[in-house]
């Protein structure tokens, strides 16, 4: 709270009383703190690759390196510039969706169609790592009222993480089922898992599990975007379960669409 006290005087300069205005600034302060924290994490994330590039440029300017060393430095710089580009693209994507600049286009869709499209995008990445990619989609018609591009993007993010954080030769599974009045999507892998103390932070912007990211490229923004798309855009929910060295499972729940519930009943109870 913020209290501002003002003395009130009459025309003879004698004090009439004191007016105290009490304002609840808790929310405003929270918002400011969150904003300041966000700006400082963005700055930090941008600084790391930039100081890398600067160091490489300085080495090249010094002129002490031979042709082969120079080629190597150009390669490092290229990687850092890719990282900057990924960061900026992810931030723009998240900001556009959160601020409503991107129009949300929710229409009636069949969930399994969206999942099949996402699976087709990821299948080559899985094949490249010899990962067995299994899709087990519900036989039921799962009507949802969603923005198919956004929900598809969320599923792709989760599948691509599953492939990225799972060693070669392991398994990734995409499942769908109906539960009560909702459709449930499960993305499960048999990969490196997420330590218990990291699980509460996993959807935070820029959070990356320190143990998992020695080599994998990323921004720590993917899951923040998934969370926003599922909860804010589609009134759904998302949860995660994980065991280190055993694997991770993300579960998304999306409310089923209205008018087609009739169709579901027809399919579910044909007799
Ligand atoms: P990133 O760009 O780093 O992949 P994300 O926001 O998508 O960012 O994920 C945040 C962090 O969560 C990752 O850096 C990784 O440490 C961890 N993570 C995400 N998905 C998985 C998974 N399927 N298995 C293990 N760790 C994961």
TrEMBL record:
<dbReference type="GO" id="GO:0016036">
    <property type="term" value="P:cellular response to phosphate starvation"/>
</dbReference>
<keyword id="KW-0547">Nucleotide-binding</keyword>
<keyword id="KW-0418">Kinase</keyword>
<dbReference type="GO" id="GO:0005524">
    <property type="term" value="F:ATP binding"/>
</dbReference>
<keyword id="KW-0808">Transferase</keyword>
<keyword id="KW-0067">ATP-binding</keyword>
<dbReference type="GO" id="GO:0004721">
    <property type="term" value="F:phosphoprotein phosphatase activity"/>
</dbReference>
<keyword id="KW-0902">Two-component regulatory system</keyword>
<protein>
    <recommendedName>
        <fullName>histidine kinase</fullName>
        <ecNumber>2.7.13.3</ecNumber>
    </recommendedName>
</protein>
<keyword id="KW-0812">Transmembrane</keyword>
<keyword id="KW-0472">Membrane</keyword>
<feature type="domain" description="Histidine kinase">
    <location>
        <begin position="41"/>
        <end position="258"/>
    </location>
</feature>
<dbReference type="GO" id="GO:0005886">
    <property type="term" value="C:plasma membrane"/>
</dbReference>
<keyword id="KW-0597">Phosphoprotein</keyword>
<keyword id="KW-1133">Transmembrane helix</keyword>
<dbReference type="GO" id="GO:0000155">
    <property type="term" value="F:phosphorelay sensor kinase activity"/>
</dbReference>
